[in-house]
Amino acid sequence: MNKPLAFLMRPTRIDQIIGQTHLVGPGKIIQRMVDAKMLSSMILYGPPGTGKTSIASAIAGSTQYAFRMLNAATDNKKDLQIVAEEAKMSGSVILLLDEVHRLDKPKQDFLLPHLESGRIILIGATTENPYISISPAIRSRAQIFELKPLSIEDIQLALNSALEDRERGLGKYHVRITDDALLHLSRATNGDLRSSLNGLELAVKSTNPDDNGIIQITLDIVEECIQRKALTHDKDGDAHYDVISALQKSIRGSDVNASLHYLGRLIEAGDLSIIARRLMVIAYEDIGLANPSAAQRTVTAIQASERLGFPEARIPLATVVIDLCLSPKSNSSIIAIDAALQDIRSGKSSDVPDHLRDSHYKGAKKLDRGVSYKYPHSYPEAWVKQQYLPNKLQKAIYYYPNHTGKYEDALARQYSKINQRK
Questions:
Q1: What pLDDT does residue 79 have?
Q2: Could you point out which of 41, 295, 404, 411 has its C-alpha 20 to 30 Å from the C-alpha of 251?
Q3: What pLDDT shows up at residue 129?
Q4: CA-based Rg of the chain, rounded to a whole angstrom?
Q5: CB contact set of 360 (below 8 Å; sequence gap of 6+)
Q6: How many CA atoms lie within 13 A of 252 on its CB side?
Q7: 231: pLDDT confidence band, cut at 50, 70 and 90?
């Protein structure tokens, strides 16, 4: 069987893992578990191709435990029983359970006692948020770790490693890849290393060598193999970020035609996840309280786009870009929170006033916790004068209303009314 490059390049030791240094770097939690041989069940969640399976296989390789892989959606209870029997004989087994959020109750009930005893060390993998999608019974018996999309540098490192590795990778081929092709291959997959490796393998194996026996991989070949166009053929790739920046600045400046132009360039490059993230940032950073319903419509349009995929996704995306362009603008929220953070980071914060502290425990009253708190709902218009900010910041002001939209204008009037009462 012809195993794909992404499978062959899977790490067998922790120190071979690309990225995720917040978990597997020196002194970090998973590295500590492996070094101390104190493994516990865990759930790894994050986007596809970020290393969930790689971390599981590397943990097994570094600890010499038996390693088995199952899928919670397609494998049945009998498959789990086989793993449990093996664990009884060998002592412990690391079980990578893909799509762990789809684990049904019978399989869950079977697994729980084995997790409690440590006979099965579960490594659940999912792209879903485990705090929402995974049952509390499993969640309470596992540590939860979030994996981040890999950086362009991380993916380039992995691609170069695959090109040089003669045993597992493509080192036996004589490959020459241009800088812009490597950059596009590492960037266009949005942090998904598996997709980048798949694209590289297809490019190399489907390209005939030249007269000198060298396989020349160009940007055009990479674009065809991953089915994503580069925004431009510039070597350094600055245009990718320039277009994202131009999209936001054009929307902020209410230029509909320029915004649609830059959106079109991102659509042509197939960067749906980049577009989605940037539009949500714009909706809250640049439109904000001037038109909060625009943010809701943005989220709805992005959800529709992700379900539709390209080419149809262009329709809701264009709709919301026009909406955001012509909406009133306000940046009062980002200015307010950044001002508050600046005070906190410069050490101006102090203790929470006693009357605001938690009083739901025995002995709180003796410490004067919550004793003099005034419950606003017991007063006219649900407002009563009392101190909320810490002593050092009693006169701090962070929010300055913007009057460009009807909604924030109404908030500004209420804000002014409250301030006058103070």
A1: 92
A2: 411
A3: 87
A4: 27
A5: none
A6: 15
A7: low
> What are the CA-CA distances from residue 397 to residues 331, 335, 352, 391, 415 (Å)?
16, 11, 17, 14, 12
Q: Which residue has the tokens 């980048």?
A: 196
φ, ψ at 69 (rounded to 5°): -125, 130
Residue 91's Cβ-count burial label (10 Å; 0-12, 13-18, 19+) is exposed
**What is the residue-averaged pLDDT of the chain?**
90
- Domains of the chain, start order: 5-146 (3.40.50.300), 152-226 (1.10.8.60), 238-326 (1.20.272.10), 347-421 (1.10.3710.10)
Residue keyed to tokens 């009133």: 328
Integer Cα distance of 47 and 190 in angstroms: 10
Top-confidence residue, 315 or 184: 315
Query: H or E segment at 66?
Result: strand 66-71
Instruction: Say which amino acid occupies 210.
Output: D
User: 269 with 228: CB under 8 angstroms?
Assistant: yes
3-class secondary-structure state, position 92: coil
Scan for tokens 């009930």, then name that residue: 109
Q: What is the pLDDT of residue 238?
A: 64
Q: How confident is the model at residue 237 (pLDDT cuts 50, 70, 90)?
A: low
Contact 328, 302 (CB under 8 A): no
The mean pLDDT of 11-30, rounded to a whole number, is: 91
Angle of CA points 334, 147, 186, to nearest 5° = 90
Answer yes or no: is pLDDT of 287 > 80.
Answer: yes
pLDDT band at 235 (very low <50, low <70, confident <90, very high): very low
Interhelix angle for 272-282 vs 238-252, to 10°? 30
What's the whole-model pTM score?
0.65
Answer whether 43's CB lies under 8 Å from 144's CB. Answer: yes
